Amino acid sequence: MKDTIVALLDAALAELKQQEVVPQELSPAYKVDPTKDKAHGDYATNLALMLAKPAKAAPRQVAEKLVAALPESAAVSKVEIAGPGFINFFAATDAAAQVVRQVLDAGDAFGRSLAGAGEKVQVEFVSANPTGPLHVGHGRGAAVGDCLCRLLEATGYDVTREFYYNDAGAQITNLALSVQARAKGLGPDCDGWPEDGYRGGYIEDVAKAYLAGETIHADDRHVTAKGDPEDLDAIREFAVAYLRREQDLDLRAFGVGFDVYFLESSLYQQGKVEETARRLTDNGHTYEQDGALWLRTTDFGDDKDRVMRKSEGGYTYFLPDVAYHLDKWQRGFTSVINEQGADHHSTVTRVRAGLQALDVGIPQGWPDYVLHQMVLVTRSGVEVKLSKRAGSYVTLRDLIDEVGRDATRFFLAARRADSQLTFDIDLARSQSNDNPVYYVQYAHARVCSVLRKAESEGLAFDHATAMANLGLLEADQEKALLNRLARYPEVVEHAAKAREPQQIAQYLQDLAADFHSCYNACKVMVDDDALRNARLALGLAARQVLRNGLDLMGVGAPEEM
Q1: Which of 95, 108, 192, 197 could potentially form a cystine with 75 if both were Cys, beta carbons 3.0 to 4.6 Å apart?
Q2: How far apart (Å, rounded) are the C-alpha atoms in residues 502 and 522?
Q3: C-alpha Rg value of the chain to the nearest Å
Q4: pLDDT digits over 137-156, tens only?
Q5: CB-hemisphere CA count at 13 Å for 397?
Q6: Which tens digits make up the pLDDT trace of 182-234?
Q7: pLDDT tens sequence across 497-556
Q8: What three-state secondary structure class fits 45?
């Protein structure tokens, strides 16, 4: 319907140009949006307001000329001018109802598009250090990142999911020392425990597995423990593999997978960190000060210059980050999105500055970032802080075990990533309309229940009868549901472009609300065959779009609840 209105307005604008009411070269970026109050129609446009100045006339006068120039259309029942010059469009019932036919014909493909034209996009998300179980913040990154990948794929992009392992540096040494201490019989409160050691109960599990000579099968490696508590290198290799396997299992339980696992250590092994440092120096963007090597990131918008190589030796995290992103660019990813925690905010400018300093054609503002805020987990109104296994934080596995995968995914992706999130365990477990994922899934299950009832009463859905009588869907609640269904493709495309998966969650809640309202107001199982089948078709269309939207969130669409 929106596309139809845009086409009508474009034709009217062309007519006003022909009449020399507005300049020929004018190309206004006007809006056509759904109305908030259905008394004002189904869609409204601000085109007349945008044309007023170039037309040298009052907006309402321009609106009158636009309306007079609109071509005839069976899709529009009425056009009104409101306020200072907004134009409101009322959709004809028959035209609005055709979305049911479109949804049922397209099925799982409804809402999908080729807007991305096959462009390669790499999305890096989760990227947890292999030093412990995934925490709830990693879970939010996994939910948002995976939903974003699904959205991009649904809009025609060629998506690569990537996990970056920080398997080099001080935190890995601390992990190895912690496991070694446990293997030697020490506890976190004992003398001799590493100063920066990890204290969670999982460290003891890793140590026991190492001493037992277990073999670990992670996604990209197989490691057999040597069992020697003195061999720190062997402990390091085994501990990283053990915790990577644990993270793999948690992500699998969460319905998240990756195409590429990239190791930080490979950047050092292949000389890419050294090569990046050399290239930056050769380009004249570095200087020595106090025994350290600095990069002039202030030349590229950073608030201060950054240390690349410390005075005591060794590179800072900043340099391998730049080397890693250079590698992404060299792999042909002109579009890269990093979904990370808000604690990475300070790295955005410096990484982009470092990439500009390489002078290899990387555009400014590359890569894109989606940063998520922290998650507060509550039960009975009280914050839940500790996990027995992790020792100091709530794990993703804790949430999955408590409320299930569907509720966990929906809750973690249902709000803007840059807003703080309170995860209410009691709400996520409840079977009530206050629980958004239950409310949406129940709408899907409710349609399935109606279809089973029709089948059991010998009144199975007749597609031909339904398609011939869609014009009978005239009730206000039916029109509201039809209009909501028609907006789905636009919502998907906008959510993908804005990198905001929560738009899908909000749409699904609105769609469920419209469906429940329609179901309660408009009896489906009526004696009139034509009306009953038309309403069954409307329910089927709602079920299809609910399922399509839930799939974009990685959430199931149950047939019974």
Answers
A1: 95
A2: 30
A3: 29
A4: 999 999 999 999 999 999 99
A5: 14
A6: 999 999 999 999 999 999 899 999 999 999 999 999 877 799 999 999 999 99
A7: 999 999 999 999 999 999 999 999 999 999 999 999 999 999 999 999 999 999 999 999
A8: strand
In a 10 Å sphere around its CB, with 0-12 CB exposed, 13-18 middle and 19+ buried, how is residue 226 labelled? middle
Q: Which residues pair with 135 in a beta bridge?
A: 395
- The DSSP annotation for 308-330 comes to EE-TTSSB-THHHHHHHHHHHHH
Q: What is the pLDDT of residue 388?
A: 63
Write out the two tokens for 399.
């949430």
pTM: predicted TM-score of the whole model, two decimal places: 0.88
Structure tokens at 179: 């496991």
The Cα 555–Cα 254 span in angstroms is 10
CA dist 503 and 412 (Å) reads: 13
Spatial strand order of the sheet with 43-45 comes to 32-34, 43-45, 86-91, 76-82
In the chain, % of residues over pLDDT 90: 87
Q: Which neighbouring-strand residues pair with 81? A: 87
Phi and psi torsions of 223, nearest 5° = -130, 130
Q: Which structure tokens are listed for 51?
A: 């044309």
Ramachandran angles phi, psi of 533, nearest 5°: -70, -35
Give the least confident one: 18-27, 33-42, 221-230, 285-294: 33-42
Buried b (16+ CB within 10 A) or exposed e, 76-112: bbebebeeebbbbbbbbbebbbbbbeebbeeeeebbb
Host H or E run for residue 246: helix 232-253
